[in-house]
Amino acid sequence: MNKFLDGFFNDKMQAKNVIEIDVDQSALSKICDLSFEGEDYDVVSPGWNSDIKWISTNSIKSRQIFYDSFKNMNISSRVLQYLDLNESPVMYQGFIVSRSNCSLPYFHEDWIDTRNQAFTFLTPITNNSNGFGLLYHDIHGEVREYNYQMGKGILFGDEFIHSTKPGRSENPVMLLCFEFGTDKMEYWDAICQTVGYQGGLVQMPNKQFGRKNKNREFITIPV
Hints:
The protein is mainly beta. The chain contains four helices and 16 strands. The chain has one domain: q2cbj1_9rhob like domain (Jelly Rolls). The termini are far apart.
């Protein structure tokens, strides 16, 4: 089990539990054509010194479109060796991150004490992300910058401290995001602290569906 505790190190980025991967743009075509409007989507704006919005899938219909892209891009294969699995990884949630301005960094970790059993994947779906990228802390605590590129994606787990880079864009910069990981419920208490925070429909490791209520309590729902 030590491999789940130790994680991995990226020499180029000088940071733990983060990698850059190639992205098949053709697998994103259906998502890029969506309007992200209507009852199939849920929108949450956390603030974070910006106009950031999480536009999450809110129905089986919209989730399926995101899930198809997730499977076609074979994203989970890049961290398969770190996941403790019964059978196969689960895509907990798919959503769009949209923002056009950010005044100050808001550094945070997506995953805390999951033993690298949950990961975030981000890739741009609009061409205007240049210069409006990601700030992160390297292993020495220094702030570094990652620039989003079409055809590339960043994938990270525990202990990756990051923030939107302050900036402004005439039109919203839009990133595709997947949250995924283990299919074992023993890790759910830690994973649930993050997943579902963005709103919308979530699939749990046991394949049941649920969402967080107004009190941030996770409840299972029939679909």
